[in-house]
Structures are given as C-alpha cells and as structure tokens.
C-alpha cells in the first residue's frame, strides 16, 4: 500500500511527522514517500503543486496531507498560492466527496462552547460535495459600467450549478455511509429560493428510492445552521453542496471545541483519497512544537478505513487516541485545569505507546 505523504507548510510538517510515527507502529506493509506541496513547493520549485508531487499523489493509494498556506504568500498571483495545491489535487484525483466527522470525545465535553448535555456523545458526519456549485460555475467575473474589468468594477458574479450525475453520486455516498451508521440522512438545500437546489432536492429524493432502509429528511441551510447549535445530536449524516458544506462543516467542527481534533477525508469513485486535518497551517504556532497532532492522526485512521481496507487498524488508532485523552494528556488547544499539558511530539509518542 502506497501512501503519498505531503506535509506542506507551517504546522503541517510537525503534525504529519506524528501521524507517520503512529502508522509506523502498526506493522502493516505501508510504503510512504514524501513530497513538497504548498508554499514549501513554491519556494523549491516555483509552483505549489509540482508535477512530481502530483505524479506521486496519483500513483499512491492514498495521500496523507498536512496543511498549506502562510500569510506571506497572500500577495502572489492566485494560481501560485499554496491553497491552489489542494484544489489541484482534488481536481486531478477526481475527489468529489468530503467526509468531515464531528465527534465529541467524552473527556473534551468541557472544551465546547455549547452546554455539555447538547454535545456529550455527539457523532455526526457531514458529507460535502466538492466539485460543483458556485465555486466552479461558469461564467464568473466582474463588470464595470463600461463592461471593462477590475479595477472600477460595478458588479461581480459567480454562477451556481450542479449536474444530475454530480448530485446522484454524492447522494449514493451519503446513503451508503448512513447505512453503516444510524440510517438517517439530512439533505441540506435552499430549494425555496435557488433553482439549483430544487434540482438537488429532486435528485436526492429520486436516489433515496434505492435506499428504503435509510430515512431521508430535507432541510433548508439556514435552519440547518440553527439546528446544528440547537440540537446537533438530532443529525446522523448531513449531505450538502460545496458552499453550504464548506460553512456547515466548519460550524460543526466548533461544536466539539477544538479544530485540532477534527480529521477529514476526500474520496474519489475508486476510494482513493486525500486525508487531512480540518484545520490550516496555523502560522501563529508553527515551529513551537505545540500543535495538536490528533486531527492528523485521526485522518490517518480514516485513510486506513476508507482507502486501505484496514478498518481494524483504524479502530486501534481511534482507541489509542481515546486512551491518551483518558490519561489526561492535552496539547495547549484542548488543555483544561487538572490535565497534563504536552507538546506535539509527546502527544504522538503517547498515541504510539497506547497503540503498542
Ligand atoms: P488555521 O486553521 O491554520 O488556524 C486557526 C486557529 O486555530 C489558529 O489560532 C491556530 O493556531 C489554531 N489551530 C489550527 N490548527 C491547530 C492545531 N492542530 N493545534 C492547535 N491549534 C491549532 O486557520 P487560519 O489561521 O485561518 O489559516 C492559516 C493558513 O492556513 C492560511 O494561509 C490559510 O489559507 C491556510 N489554510 C489551509 C488549509 C488547508 O491546508 N487545508 C485549511 C484552512 C486554512
């Protein structure tokens, strides 16, 4: 099993090193090869996603990704910015389904801004479509009164679009995921005002006829945003488009208190996937050895389960993470009184030890 390891920038290198450490304890035939991506690749090769990195990713069974970006690249032309590497990987690998579980660990209930009773035992999965919607619709642009271009724009526009196959495949993914969980899908749309999302709702309803054992509920996105903070445990699987998914998955990630705990997976139709923490490169704490590596370690567990067919190893990693939390070990982002503060490497060591 071949894994392309792309640590990226900022804390990316620190947290990926810990995930690799944990994978190495497993005694599985994993072949890991690293390459530069993001700002680090731009510095070395003049491009955030060099051909060699893309080739490695394409040939691998899975990609373990850290994070990319730094404020110092904000003035670069858009195609050269580190974040473009993720878009390039998604496009070239055909990654269309983004899985973002939001799980509240018993020991971290106090880290959430919500009342403990609302989130204790929370285990929901947001599935975001990644290839369509307003982020990729054409035409897009700006107009001036004289129909010129920026600067002096009077108007800007992006087009929202979804095709039937795009909606069908993400709906199948959601119903199949729900079958392995609590058998309930909430499809989030804005069908009351957007034609694109009336179409979304119609197609999801059609696909649902093939999954009579799974309950389907439709919800408008504004209501879903409210319900996520009012009664998040009422959800099981949420499926939605690219933009609503972008926003709702960040909202859901905060339910659990720390962004440093949340893994994610982006899959294509062959179950090849890119696995990364939900957070960014955190330039503010990079190099200090304090970043929480658990989101990346849990992403590695998702990789074993979804792309590498080693669900048992994934279960072991997740159990090891629970065990270090139960021992009271905390990186600063999840620290509370009465627990023991540890750094990035110590946390990785503790998970490795618990695994052994
Ligand atoms: P961020 O997620 O990097 O950081 C937000 C806050 O959370 C910061 O205070 C940071 O210190 C903290 N944080 C994040 N991860 C943490 C961890 N593992 N442990 C402890 N604390 C953690 O978001 P940002 O500051 O808005 O963005 C920083 C850079 O990351 C930008 O260049 C942005 O474009 C990029 N970014 C990249 C990705 C990605 O690679 N997928 C995603 C989001 C942002």
Structural summary, described in words:
39% of the residues lie in helices and 19% in strands. The model has no long low-confidence stretch (mean pLDDT 94). The protein is globular, with a radius of gyration of 20 Å. It is built from 12 helices and 14 strands. It has 356 residues and is α/β, with parallel strands linked by helices. Nicotinamide-adenine-dinucleotide (NAD) binds at residues 11, 15, 67-70, 83, 86, 259-260, 276, 279-285, 291-292, 295, 333. Nicotinamide-adenine-dinucleotide binds at residues 11, 15, 67-70, 83, 86, 259-260, 276, 279-285, 291-292, 295, 333.
Kindly report the average pLDDT value.
Answer: 94
Strand percentage lies at 15-25%
CATH architecture assignment of the largest domain: 3-Layer(aba) Sandwich
How many DSSP E strands?
14
Structure annotation, total helices: 12
- Please give the order of strands in the largest beta sheet: 2-1-3-12-11-4-5-10-8-9
Unreliable spans are: none
- What's the CATH topology name of the largest domain? Isopropylmalate Dehydrogenase
Our measurement of the CA-to-CA distance between the termini, rounded to an integer number of angstroms, reads 21 Å
**SS-based structural class?**
alpha/beta
How is the biggest beta sheet arranged? 10 strands, mixed
> How many independent structural domains?
2
């Amino acid at each position: 099993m071949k894994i392309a390891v792309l640590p990226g920038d900022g804390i990316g290198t620190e947290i990926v090193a810990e995930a690799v450490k944990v994978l190495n304890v497993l005694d599985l035939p994993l072949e890991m090869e690293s390459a530069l991506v993001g700002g680090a690749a731009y510095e070395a090769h003049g491009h955030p996603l060099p051909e060699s990195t893309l080739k490695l990713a394409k040939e691998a069974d899975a990609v373990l990704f850290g994070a990319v970006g730094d404020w110092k690249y904000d003035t670069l032309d858009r195609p050269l910015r580190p974040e473009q590497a993720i878009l390039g990987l998604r496009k070239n690998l055909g990654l269309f389904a983004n899985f973002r579980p939001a799980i509240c660990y018993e020991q971290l209930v106090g880290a959430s801004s919500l009342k403990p009773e609302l989130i204790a035992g929370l285990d929901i999965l947001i599935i975001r479509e990644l290839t369509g919607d307003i982020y990729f619709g054409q035409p897009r642009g700006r107009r001036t009164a004289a129909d010129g271009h920026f600067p002096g724009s009077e108007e800007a526009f992006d087009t929202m679009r979804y095709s039937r196959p795009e909606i069908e495949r993400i709906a199948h993914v959601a119903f199949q995921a729900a079958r392995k969980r609590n058998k309930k899908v909430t499809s989030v749309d804005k069908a009351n005002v957007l034609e694109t999302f009336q179409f979304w709702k119609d197609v999801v309803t059609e696909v649902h006829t093939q999954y009579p054992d799974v309950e389907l509920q439709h919800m408008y996105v504004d209501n879903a945003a409210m319900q996520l903070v009012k009664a998040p445990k009422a959800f099981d699987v949420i499926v939605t488009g690219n933009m609503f998914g972008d926003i709702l998955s960040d909202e859901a990630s905060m339910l659990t208190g720390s962004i440093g705990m949340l893994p994610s997976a982006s899959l294509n139709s062959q179950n090849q996937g890119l696995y990364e923490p939900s957070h960014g490169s955190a330039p503010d704490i990079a190099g200090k050895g304090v970043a929480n590596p658990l989101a990346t370690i849990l992403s590695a567990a998702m990789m074993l389960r979804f792309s590498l067919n080693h669900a048992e190893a994934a279960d072991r990693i997740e159990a090891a993470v629970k065990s270090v939390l139960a021992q009271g070990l905390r990186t600063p982002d999840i620290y509370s009184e009465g627990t023991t503060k540890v750094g990035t490497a110590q946390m990785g060591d503790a998970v490795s030890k618990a695994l052994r």
